[in-house]
Amino acid sequence: MSLGDWIRTTLEERLAPTALSVVDESHQHAGHSGWREGGETHFRLDVVSAAFEGKSRVERHRMVNALLDDAFKRGLHALALRARTPGEAG
């Protein structure tokens, strides 16, 4: 399973998002710190989940980072994250 697929599956199982976008942007970081041949080092996520209700932006990011701890151990270097509630997503 690719790292992107693992991220998607993990977030779907743990956050039950109403919307989820997982985009590998590694190609945009070629030659930068943390980049490696083959990609899967830099991802952009947009997660909409009721699990974020009542949580600050920092708390939401900490939740997602904690869920993806194994991804960082597998080589994920950077994560651009947008974490919203269904009401914020409109």
Automatic annotation (TrEMBL):
GO terms, biological process: iron-sulfur cluster assembly
InterPro entries from the UniProt entry: BolA (IPR002634), BolA-like_sf (IPR036065)
SUPFAM superfamilies: BolA-like
Pfam families named among the record's database cross-references: BolA
Family statement: Belongs to the BolA/IbaG family.
Protein name: BolA family transcriptional regulator
